[in-house]
Specification:
The chain is mainly alpha-helical. Helices cover 72% and strands 0% of the residues. It folds into two domains: 6-207, Rhopdopsin 7-helix transmembrane proteins (Up-down Bundle); 230-341, Arc Repressor Mutant, subunit A (Orthogonal Bundle). The longest helix is centred in the middle third of the chain and has 31 residues, at 147-177. It starts with 5 loop residues before the first helix and ends with a helix.
Length: 344
């Protein structure tokens, strides 16, 4: 009977996500390429896991470990791209140290490889968690309608990296103590689930990138970094300027609108926009802009024969799930029920 090991099935799913990502994104920008490499790396790692545990090819273990410690730094760099934190810097080269260290251990200290993988996952899990703690508004390059979902995926990636470090530590202990009695079960359930989660998170993050490339980091660095403390009156003036801009130019109808783009169009630093909206409105920027979009969708549903899907697209949303979630947040009901009730 023909049998396909579970890791190979996971790899096929990840390849499908990669193909879907490539098909969906018509414009190839650097950030897209990074996420594609990340997703391809997850698929390759799943194949190596299948060959190692499905067919007992132990010679692939060093390659598997090297790839594993390479993907964690690369994931951080990909997500930093969404936050405009990935500008060229000599420090970025240090992210190659985990892979170089494992390669050196393969030759001179193979017993330390498992511990190195655990430490790398712990370190980069904490680094990604630190990025996630800055909130959805930190993902200034992501489209505003996708930023909250990307932020949740960022949190999930960080927490799962930390959990993976603990599981890898247990597997290392299990290999020494019982000869790997429980390792195959853990890899077949938890580790492969994590690869699927990481792959889906990378796909969601890549999908949040605008169709047109955001200007280089140095072009918007001053906008992103400037965040002077402001009294409430200044915050209110900032929100008033943004409200006038959104209403006059109807920027909220742009599907690719991001915090970085809003900062450029308004001439207000991105962090100042985020802080002012948070303090005055008690919302993040995505929710604030989506309020305008949902109001526009309500107007269309009330006064035009457009379908719910047509009203969604005409209001700046690109995915049904985001539109339904935000519509329920603002109105307390679904678009279809809202139209039926004639809630003006």
């Amino acid at each position: 009977m023909f049998f396909i090991p579970l890791p190979f099935i996971v790899a096929l799913v990840l390849v499908f996500l990669l193909a879907q990502m490539t098909w969906r994104q018509g414009v190839v920008v650097l950030a897209n390429q990074r996420f594609r490499l990340l997703l391809g790396g997850y698929a390759l790692l799943s194949v190596l896991v299948g060959l190692r545990w499905g067919y007992g090819i132990k010679l692939l273990l060093p390659l598997q470990a090297t790839l594993a410690v390479s993907l964690a730094p690369w994931a951080l760099r990909c997500y930093q791209t969404l936050a405009q934190d990935a500008a060229a810097s000599p420090w970025q080269k240090l992210h190659a140290l985990p892979a170089l260290g494992v390669l050196a251990m393969i030759a001179w200290w193979p017993q330390a490889i498992d511990a190195a993988v655990v430490l790398v996952y712990l370190g980069y899990g904490l680094a990604i968690l630190r990025l996630a703690r800055r909130g959805p508004d930190a993902l200034g390059v992501a489209r505003l309608d996708q930023a909250p979902l990307v932020h949740r995926m960022l949190q999930a990636t960080a927490v799962s990296l930390l959990l993976s470090a603990l599981v890898d530590a247990f597997i290392a202990w299990d290999m020494v103590s019982t000869g790997g009695r429980y390792s195959a079960l853990l890899l077949g359930s938890f580790e492969l689930f994590l690869l699927l989660l990481w792959g889906y998170a990378a796909s969601v993050a890549a999908d949040s990138l605008p169709d047109q490339a955001t200007p280089p980091a140095e072009a918007v660095e001053a906008v992103v970094e400037a965040a002077p403390a402001a009294p409430l009156a200044d915050d209110q003036r900032t929100v008033a300027v943004l409200q006038q801009l959104l209403q006059d130019q109807r920027l909220y109808l742009e599907p690719d609108l991001s915090l970085i783009r809003l900062a450029r169009k308004s001439g207000i630093p991105a962090r100042q926009i985020s802080a002012a909206i948070n303090r005055v409105e008690g919302k993040n920027v995505s929710q604030y802009v989506n309020d305008f979009r949902i109001q526009h969708a309500c107007d269309l549903l009330r006064s035009s024969p457009q379908t719910v899907a047509e009203a969604m697209l005409a209001s700046g949303f690109q995915t049904k799930s985001n539109f339904q979630r935000e519509f329920r947040r603002v109105t307390g009901t679904t678009p279809a029920l809202w139209r039926q009730q004639g809630a003006g």
